[in-house]
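Q: How would the structure tokens look for this protein?
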Amino acid sequence: IAAEHQHVVNVAGRQLMCTCRGCYLLFSDPKAELKYRAVPDRYLRFADLALDRRAWESLQIPVGLAFFFRNSLQDKIVAFYPGPAGATESELDVDTLRSIAGADVRLETLTDDVEALLVRVRDAEPAECYLVPIDACYEFVGHLRMLWRGFDGGQDVRRFVDDFFARVATRSKVAAP
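A: Here is the predicted structure in token form.
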């Protein structure tokens, strides 16, 4: 497999797998019920998503970063946040998340299992919300894990987070309301 390649998700195992272009295309029909699903390369920015600090705190996620995706097998939205051990699954209050997600129909465009809503919430700034491929989320968490030092991650982590979100912003098209 070439250095630049695509990924598929093993839906049941929630595992990413590297694939050649031919194999990737076999699993690219989003409506087919397959064991594997191709991870698309779509990046969108939800510049005006109504997600403020209070709504974020109602989700009870202990950090200002998380990604959300719909798990088709569990038929629910799941959330993960980064930390020194990797991606930690959050036990969400589903009703709270539905009230946030239900308020914006654009969130329904996420493809199950392979696309995520990546959110960064910081004090006194609007939330940064992006639709990204799920492999970008796991790449993000993996790099954080390698860089993490001390209790809060350290300067290298903060710098990496800023750089990563800048790259995502550059790749993203603004999603129309």
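The chain has a mean pLDDT of 85.

The two ends are 38 Å apart (CA to CA).

Upvote if useful.
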